[in-house]
Specification:
Blueprint (H helix, E strand, L loop, with lengths): L2 H17 L8 H8 L3 H7 L4 H21 L9 H15 L1 H9 L6 H13 L16 H20 L7 H13 L13
Helix pairs in contact: 1-2, 4-5, 4-7, 5-9, 7-8, 8-9
Organism: Lactococcus muris
Protein name: TetR/AcrR family transcriptional regulator
InterPro entries: Homeodomain-like_sf, HTH-type_Tx_Regulator, TetR_C_Firmicutes, UPF0122
Length: about 190
């Protein structure tokens, strides 16, 4: 039982999560039944518990994304948002089904925080230290969390559509949404 079995276990885990999105925990026995393998085979050769399955899923998704963020070589004067749209959105799109399960079910309450923390670390060096022109007197931590949560919200809304656009098409919309405020999305008569 090799890589194919691990994929089968992960896919079975996801099928169960989608069938019961409010359930926070599945046993190895439930996953084994769905995967059509024995619980002992999962335990002895692959995963000791469901947390290990979640860790494996997170690691596979995040390794590629975070590795790309860590090796970011941007052109001078390039926005980190443009880099994110060009380089990171295609990777996230590749894992769109996994991402959808992690963001629409109760299976992993930590995933959003892991991503938020990592994005905050990435965007921190790009913050404008001269806050006087914007008249927003908030901490750097607050600013970087707003940026990270905004990106996560946009990506989540994109990938949780039934048929999300490919990243090459969505990247323009992504950048437009990042530069728009919530106020910009309202009808004129309801804007601040």
């Amino acid at each position: 039982m090799g890589l194919g079995t691990r994929e089968n276990i992960i896919n079975s885990f996801f099928r169960l999560a989608l069938q019961e999105p409010n359930k926070q925990h599945f046993t190895l026995s439930e996953i084994a039944r769905e995967a059509n393998v024995s619980r002992q085979a999962i335990y002895k050769k692959h995963y000791k518990n469901t947390e290990e399955i979640l860790e494996d899923i997170r690691n596979k998704m995040n390794l590629e994304i975070f590795k790309r963020l860590d090796s970011a070589v941007m052109k001078e004067e390039e926005s980190p948002f443009t880099f994110f749209a060009k380089e990171i959105l295609p990777i996230v799109y590749k894992y769109r089904i996994w991402f959808r399960v992690l963001t629409t079910t109760s299976m992993d309450s930590y995933y959003g925080r892991i991503v938020e923390t990592r994005l905050s670390t990435y965007f921190l060096p790009f913050l404008d230290e001269n806050d006087s022109r914007k008249k927003m007197h908030v901490s750097e931590d607050f600013k970087v969390r707003i940026i990270s949560k905004n990106i996560i919200s946009i990506v989540t809304a994109w990938l949780n559509q039934d048929f999300p656009e490919p990243p090459e098409a969505f990247s323009k919309t992504f950048l437009e949404l990042l530069t728009a405020s919530s106020n910009d999305l309202l009808k004129d008569e309801h804007r601040l």
